[in-house]
Specification:
Blueprint lengths: L1 H56 L17 E6 L4 E8 L6 E2 L5 E11 L8 E12 L4 E15 L4 E14 L2 E15 L10 E11 L5 E13 H4 L11 E8 L4 E6 L11 E6 L2 E6 L2
Antiparallel strand pairs: 1-2, 2-4, 3-4, 4-5, 5-6, 6-7, 7-8, 8-9, 9-10, 10-11, 11-12, 12-13, 13-14
Length: 289
């Protein structure tokens, strides 16, 4: 009888330890999924802003083909400024993988920008919508949906500020569906005086919330401004358009834990794809999308 009790206690302890480890593994997977999904949404919806804003700032004849142009040759820009509501449309060729962009990813579909009045007027509101828009990293094809509105808060000779709201955004891929909403302040700290992106630098602050590919809710807050620097990093494929500095903190509701993403883990803000995840007292460097 005594041995039986001991066996039961030992088995119970092992079962509890196993369950605890399994629960720990599930929490880790939930945090990692939320971090990757938030980073993907953060990055792509900023890219969408970059692409549309660059197209709107070009002269009415549309996209030029020189190296200063952010958009690839296989993207077509059309403008309609004849009515009260003006439109700028960016269409990425849908053949094959799509258009190879300067960040090394392939894009298909349409970005439509609508606004009224002068594009640079303080107080002017602009709306971005996506039609059949997707991104391919040669592993998965991800379809993006959602609306992005931004308002001009400041417009100067070299700088500008925009308040931004992303609503009802989602990304659909073989890994699942990610849902995301965000409130942002985008500060163009240089390059506002030219119609080109090559001399632009941005700082982004704000917060976001959503649900990861497994339907688990999360929130994120930018704790150090996210930085893009086109002048410094150039427009070469795989280097351009990525965050090179900044940090955000993410909380996953079900895991009840906090994770931090640092885009400049080694210092000096190099133009690379390396970031550092810090979670549960441990850190590791990762390669971004």
């Amino acid at each position: 009888m005594k041995k039986t009790v001991i066996y039961v206690l030992v088995f119970g302890a092992l079962l509890w330890t196993g369950c605890k480890r399994e629960n720990e593994k599930e929490k880790n997977e939930a945090m990692f999924a939320s971090a990757v999904d938030n980073s993907k949404m953060e990055s792509e919806f900023q890219q969408i802003f970059d692409q549309a804003d660059n197209a709107a700032r070009f002269n009415p004849s549309g996209k030029t083909s020189d190296i200063e142009n952010w958009l690839p040759e296989c993207a077509t820009v059309t403008r309609d400024t004849s009515g009260n509501i003006r439109t700028v449309t960016v269409v990425f060729d849908s053949a094959g993988y799509g258009c190879l962009c300067r960040d090394g990813l392939y894009r298909k579909g349409t970005i439509k920008l609508e606004y009224s009045g002068n594009y640079a007027t303080v107080g002017a509101t602009k709306t971005l919508t996506l039609v059949g828009y997707s991104v391919n990293d040669m592993v998965n094809q991800t379809a993006f949906f959602g609306t992005k509105t931004f308002r001009v808060e400041e417009w100067g000779d070299s700088t500008a500020k925009f308040s931004v709201r992303v609503t009802d955004a989602r990304a659909e891929s073989p890994e699942g569906v990610v849902r995301w909403s965000a409130e942002r302040m985008i500060h163009r700290t240089s390059g506002n005086a030219t119609p080109y992106v090559h001399d632009d630098r941005y700082e982004i602050t704000g917060s976001a919330s959503g649900a990861n590919r497994n339907g688990q809710a999360f929130t994120s807050t930018i704790t150090r401004a996210l930085v893009k620097d086109f002048k410094r990093c150039g427009l070469r494929v795989n280097r351009s358009g990525r965050f090179i500095d900044g940090e955000w903190t993410l909380v996953n509701a079900e895991a009840d834990r906090t994770l931090t993403m640092d885009y400049d883990p080694i210092g000096g803000a190099p133009c690379d794809r390396i970031a550092r995840l810090t979670y549960n007292g441990q850190s590791r460097n990762i390669t971004l999308w």
